Amino acid sequence: MFTGLIEHTGIITAKSKRNSSVKVCVKSRALNKCKVGQSVAVNGVCLTVTQVSKDIIRFDVINETLRATTIGLWAAGQKVNLETAAKFGQTMDGHLVQGHVDAPGQVVQIRKSSGEWQVTVRVPSSIKMFAIKKGSIAIDGVSLTIQKVTGSLITVALIPHTRKVTSFSELAVGDKVNVEVDQIGKMVYHWVQEYRPKRRKR
To answer: How much is the pTM?
Structure first.
């Protein structure tokens, strides 16, 4: 479990395919004390540390994760957002983020306005019903508040600090991003769909 508050950024140093999985190596001095088996959110994807060597952390990624995220598009030299798992008792400044990406979205507009950057992302129809104005959403692992929803387009606003300390400083129109909607909304939707009383036919 994560909060969506990015602690550090790292750089992908290598990505290679081995058998049915992909190996991703990320350089980050800040996380050189990570242990094998620890969970780290990398651009919003919960991955398990499989090897630590000085300031290089390696992750193994299976096909299902590749299918549901943007990892297949990652390349050496790319900046990524990093967050270690939340600890019980710490301040919850973001929102509950699982690191289980719902689907990739695509950036369709970036606009600077009055000291903020407004970013609009197109999301698949399968998750757009979970996006509500002023609701929470995680984009590439960053906890953000939804500013506007227009059909399948979701707009969020980035303050200069968020843009500075995350990979969003390199974000461009056309980029694919990992999107995780608020899990509470998903749970409520599931409950309503599965367990609501059935209306009797008259």
So the answer is: 0.90
**Cα-Cα end-to-end distance for the chain:** 47
The tens digit of pLDDT for each residue in 97-122 reads 999 999 999 999 999 988 899 999 99
Torsions phi, psi for 110 (to 5 deg): -130, 120
Which domains are present in the chain?
Answer: 8-84 (2.40.30.20), 103-190 (2.40.30.20)
At 107, list the tokens. Answer: 């950036």
Measured CA to CA, the distance from residue 43 to residue 23 in angstroms comes to: 15
Q: Are 122 and 151 in contact (CB under 8 A)?
A: no
Burial 88-111 (b: 16+ CB within 10 A, else e): eeeeeebbbbebebbbbbbbbeee
